[in-house]
């Protein structure tokens, strides 16, 4: 499955491959008349609709009515700051680390932080080999199992292994797994998911030997070169979090710019209507 030209700027969570992966896992996303993907979830027994990483169109409410979703609480989490229908803020904007892949490699290498570039140079001088290929559509792939174990240990949430494997099954050439080898043994992995003219870093794993050899620096640099050669002009490295300062430094020093999301918001039309009924005339609610 490939994204069509009109879908080239859609974020990963709005891509056709993501929708196909959800369906393969038994979920039923709704595609609005304008093409946006809406997730349906249950939280504490309450049915919710979620519009992930999308800028709401001006006629969003009309599209929701046409899809029969107008009465569900709606979670909005736009990719970028943008005008929104009246809603309650649930979360302040995150900062995403994004690498512009359009400049030539010599300029992008010069834009690397000095320490990051020195680590890359050491990795390039070590006995490291790099290979890359599509991810096998196997939920028991060692990388997916290692990521699930790491997520449990560190207390963060990522896609279930089954969903990543379903994405690989739906769009095998939109996955790319880069592996660093040292003396015939894999020491680090980085998996990227491709969507239109962009790519997103998904998951990675590294052992102590790989850390000592700065293998992730080498993998990210090699992956950025390959992705640019394939016509991608943007690499999304994901959120930068104060709770993980080492990872934040790795991303920002890799030549990434920090770009804010539009935050997370809740809109629930029935509650809004009820508040409007109770409000005194002329009083602004929002």
TrEMBL record:
Pfam families: Acetyltransf_6. GO terms for molecular function: acyltransferase activity. It comes from the Bacteria. Coiled coil: none annotated. Its EC number is 2.3.1.-. Keywords: Acyltransferase, Transferase. Residues 137-251 form the BioF2-like acetyltransferase domain. This is GNAT family N-acetyltransferase. It comes from Sulfitobacter aestuarii. The lineage of its organism: Bacteria, Pseudomonadati, Pseudomonadota, Alphaproteobacteria, Rhodobacterales.
């Amino acid at each position: 499955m490939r994204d069509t030209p009109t879908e080239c700027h859609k974020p990963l969570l709005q891509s056709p491959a993501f929708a196909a992966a959800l369906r393969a896992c038994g979920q039923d996303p709704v595609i609005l008349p304008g093409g946006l993907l809406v997730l349906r979830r249950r939280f504490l027994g309450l049915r919710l609709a979620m519009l992930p990483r999308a800028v709401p169109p001006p006629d969003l409410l009309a599209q929701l009515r046409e899809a029969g979703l107008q009465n569900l609480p709606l979670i909005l989490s736009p990719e970028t700051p943008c005008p929104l229908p009246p809603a309650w803020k649930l979360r302040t904007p995150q900062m995403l680390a994004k690498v512009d892949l359009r400049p030539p490699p010599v300029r992008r290498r010069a834009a690397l932080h000095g320490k990051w570039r020195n680590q890359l140079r050491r990795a390039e001088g070590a006995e490291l080999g790099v290979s890359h290929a599509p991810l096998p559509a196997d939920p028991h792939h060692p990388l997916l199992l290692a990521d699930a174990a790491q997520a449990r240990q560190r207390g963060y949430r990522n896609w279930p292994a089954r969903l990543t494997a379903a994405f690989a099954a739906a769009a095998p050439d939109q996955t790319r797994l880069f592996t660093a080898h040292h003396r015939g043994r894999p020491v680090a992995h980085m998996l990227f998911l491709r969507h239109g003219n962009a790519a997103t870093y998904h998951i990675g794993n590294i052992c102590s030997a790989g850390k000592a050899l700065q293998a992730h620096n080498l993998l990210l640099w090699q992956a950025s070169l390959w992705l640019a050669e394939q016509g991608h002009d943007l690499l999304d490295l994901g959120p930068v979090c104060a709770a993980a300062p080492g990872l934040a430094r790795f991303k920002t020093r890799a030549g990434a710019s920090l770009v804010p999301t539009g935050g997370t918001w809740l809109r629930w039309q029935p509650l809004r209507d009820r508040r409007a009924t109770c409000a005194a005339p002329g009083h602004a609610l929002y």
